[in-house]
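If you are new to this repository, start here. Below is one unmodified record pulled from the training split, so you can see the exact layout before writing a loader.
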Amino acid sequence: MATFPRINGKLYDFSSAEISIADRIFNAFDSVSYDQPIEEGIVRGSAAEPLGRTRGELQIGEGSITIVKEEGQEIWTLLGNGYLETEFSITCVYSATNAPTTRDELFGCRFLSQSDDHSSGSDALVVEMEFSFLNMKRNGLTPLLNQRI
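And here is the target side for that same chain:
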């Protein structure tokens, strides 16, 4: 269990993150987010309070990456024609001094959209890329028991 404050170590910050898409590392991203919820059933019977719950169903995962336009173009080129139909994997690695490296793996990913929204100013142009995924592992652990990945 983690204890705070750390004396000789650092906690993860955004510079600790690295993502790879289809086995190629990309570093020029401003944000990455992903989630895969489970939808459980509740058993009530004639009681006012819940009596129990079902195992539930793991839903399709959803996420997004905001990345500089040039690297977004590299991703589309890497995936080729039909890049919105191509399945690939995303790996997010987090590492910091004196902290364990963690690795989230997203399988069966597919981009759903790519959104450009540019305006004048000194910031680099970015593209937001939304995606879905079928399964994930967090540091080698699956969300469900006996999950086939």
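Two things worth knowing about this chain: Residues 46 and 63 are 39 Å apart (CA to CA). The chain has one domain: 14-138.
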